[in-house]
Amino acid sequence: MNTLTPADRAKYAASRAALSLVEPDMKLGLGTGSTANWFIRLLGERIRVDGIKLSAVATSDRTAALARSEGIEVIELDAAGWLDLTIDGADEVDPALNLIKGGGGAHLQEKIVATASDRMVVITDDSKLVDTLGAFPLPVEVIPLGWTASRAIIEEMLEQIDVDGREVTPRMNGSELYRTDEGNHILDLHLKRIGDPHRLSPLLNQVAGVVENGLFLGVADQIMVGYDSGQAHLL
Ligand code: 5RP
């Protein structure tokens, strides 16, 4: 553990504490990202050591691959029907437990899985706690057809919105446009401050080419915050 960065020690602490929320026979949602990866590794260890049985729905291909490699039974959401608990990371968390997610490009599946769960608990290091959302660029997943038109419509719409920045950039993977697991692209909205996320989110999703945006409003039930000291507590 001494070789971990302070951020990783905090992510590990949050993940370890969240493990106590898992009970045998639960159907879990597993998030995507470096914090979720810590949780998945610890969950695999608990399954191997304690021999508990449970199944899980993954929010991305890479999460599914890691979970399987850890010996976790991965099932489809439609086979699960409904989930007991989803554990996932976040890019920003505000005092009302609203989130920005999608830094890892998986927010579409993450939102579907989280909203199909009795409870969503976010695991995070304390650096993600903010007073106001928006310093982290807001990811918006768009279908490839006409993505430049979708960007133009979003840019025009942002003129009417209470934000401090209006730059919209396509996410890249090297010299190629980034592709999500669904084969879509992501536009990152550099808003700096989002004055009214509840107004912005439905407006974004009304744009024809938009699949889903990364605002999770009223979705998270609790936040497990980890610190590099190894402590963690639930908000
Ligand atoms: C992926 C996400 C992640 O949860 C978010 O980007 C946080 O990632 P990390 O735990 O690596 O900081 O939303 O789409």
UniProtKB/TrEMBL annotation:
Keywords: Isomerase
Active site (UniProt): 110
Main EC class the enzyme belongs to: isomerase
Pathway in which the depicted protein is active: Carbohydrate degradation; pentose phosphate pathway; D-ribose 5-phosphate from D-ribulose 5-phosphate (non-oxidative stage): step 1/1
EC number from the UniProt entry: 5.3.1.6
Cellular component GO terms held in the UniProt record: cytosol
MF (Gene Ontology): ribose-5-phosphate isomerase activity
Binding site for substrate: 32-35, 88-91, 101-104, 128
GO biological process: D-ribose metabolic process; pentose-phosphate shunt, non-oxidative branch
Domain of life: Bacteria
Keyword RNA-binding: no
Catalytic activity, as annotated: aldehydo-D-ribose 5-phosphate = D-ribulose 5-phosphate
Protein's job: Catalyzes the reversible conversion of ribose-5-phosphate to ribulose 5-phosphate.
NCBIfam families referenced in this protein's UniProt entry, alphabetically: PRK00702.1, rpiA
Assembly: Homodimer.
Assigned protein family: Belongs to the ribose 5-phosphate isomerase family.
Name under which the protein is recorded: Ribose-5-phosphate isomerase A
Organismal lineage: Bacteria, Pseudomonadati, Pseudomonadota, Alphaproteobacteria, Rhodobacterales
Gene this protein is translated from: rpiA
